[in-house]
Amino acid sequence: VYAAKIISYAQGFMMMREAAREYGWSLNYGGIAIMWKGGCIIRSRFLGDIKKAFDNNPELVNLTLDPFFSSILARCQLRWRKVVSKAVLLGIPVPCLQTALSFYDGYRMTQLPASLLQAQRDYFGAHTYERLDNPGSFVHTNWTGHGGQVSSSTYDV
To answer: Where do the H-state alpha helices sit in the chain?
Structure first.
């Protein structure tokens, strides 16, 4: 649960950072964490750790990249996966734990499994896909052996 909590805060601060970028705001993320600590709902020592992370690196783009939080996530990862796996096997919904784990995995990957989606689009609609071994090269594969090498094309409106 602690790892999922870290991820939820990381996502929240990422959203604030993006809003600040889009609207030209200058936000003090460490100050925000401490302000929340003084509130009536989120009174957690955890917020002090967030403040320290932003004090150490005011440009921190994601809490999971801070050494304190990344070490906790690394330490919790195996147990987190076991809990989610067991819950799935037993048919017990744990949407917050599961999506937090998926976010964590996705954020750490240099290449996401979008290749499957690209292949499906190409198979069903001949939309082509970009070759990772040849960036900028878009190709269509004749997946079934029927229908030739037809691919959709771009058009100007």
So the answer is: 2-23, 29-37, 46-56, 67-90, 95-108, 114-125
